[in-house]
Amino acid sequence: MIIQGKAVAPASAITIAAELILNSDGGIECVLSSVDDNIVTTADSELKTDIGNITISRALGAIPRSFTFVNGWTFTADNNAKIDIWLRQQNKQSWLHKLEKNSIAITASILLSCLSAWYVMNSGIPAISGMIAQSIPPVVEKHLADYSLEYLDEHYFTVSKLSAKRQSELTGLLNNINSAAIVYNGEPKLLFRSLADTANAFTLTDGTIILTDKLVALVQDDRELKAVLLHEIGHQYHNHLLKQLVQASILSVLVNYIVGDATGIGDTLASASTLLLSLEYSQQAELEADRFAAEALMSEYGSVQPLEQVLMQLESEPLSSPTWLRSHPDISERVNAINLIDPL
């Protein structure tokens, strides 16, 4: 079998028209169409070997195959078809090339890659994050909480306008939370702040809970406020804040590893991917905290209605972004989820 192509001498950029003779016994010979004494020595002109003593490049699409001899000469073929036939006869055809021509194998590989990525994102990263978060010592949790509170007080929060009496009542409400469904390590601490016109509650990494004045004004029933506190305790019980910090770090490293040292559009896509995945994890954490609160309310009151009422009141608060761009799920989704615990 004769293959037309070009040969290149070692340490030279000059190409020479050549033929590659492929024998059925595995023998290989490269015959140069012309010999330049300045390039080709007597030893070089005898380019004969066998399939076991030559390097043959892998077949990748239409990229020409190359044959590299032990003396450094390289022959590049004009056409791969005959080479594939010869290699098949020699039982040396690349598995990658076989895969490339097998549409079923390609489809299966893509599906397997997608399933693997889905599993890593939905199970692998949360599981690893949970183990890492669990090993973080309390002194680090306290440091993170102190820093977060200091930053929020400096840039966002203002002093609460709630009366000392109301603050004392709500602190007593937290201290009196008692349910067989709750296993809470440490003593939760309750703080009050004003945050523009926002009704919200926050949990810090050390278990400190912050209620805003607007939330206390909006939710006046103490059983409903207890539902809010239970939800925040649920975040601490499941260690959500530390998990999310670890998850964000893992996602950032993973996405940047996949994208590479990207700039411009690539960097933007990497940041957007990390943000969207982090928001997805955050929404899952909110549903988990809702479930914790709902189970505690069922244990104490036999109903999840206090939590449902709070969620319905929060639904009246204006939202300017679509669900997939929020850290919290849609209110209707949350209500439906807790009603699975109390279907009546």
Write the layout of secondary structure elements.
Blueprint: E1 2-8, E2 15-22, E3 27-32, E4 47-50, E5 55-56, E6 66-68, E7 74-77, H1 81-89, H2 95-100, H3 103-134, H4 138-155, E8 158-159, H5 164-175, E9 190-194, E10 201-203, E11 209-212, H6 213-218, H7 222-237, H8 240-259, H9 265-301, H10 305-315, H11 331-339
Parallel strand pairs: 9-11
Antiparallel strand pairs: 1-2, 1-7, 2-3, 3-4, 5-6, 6-7, 8-9, 10-11
Helix pairs in contact: 3-8, 7-9, 7-10, 8-9, 10-11
GO biological process, one term: proteolysis involved in protein catabolic process
Organism: Moritella viscosa
Cofactor: Zn(2+)
Model description:
The chain is α+β, with helices and mostly antiparallel strands. It has three domains: 2-92, PH-domain like; 93-135; 137-341, no CATH class. It has eleven helices and eleven strands. The chain has a seven-stranded antiparallel sheet. Helix 7 (222-237) crosses helix 9, helix 7 crosses helix 10 (305-315) and helix 10 runs antiparallel to helix 11. GO terms for molecular function: metal ion binding; metalloendopeptidase activity. Residues 197-339 form the Peptidase M48 domain. Its cofactor is Zn(2+).
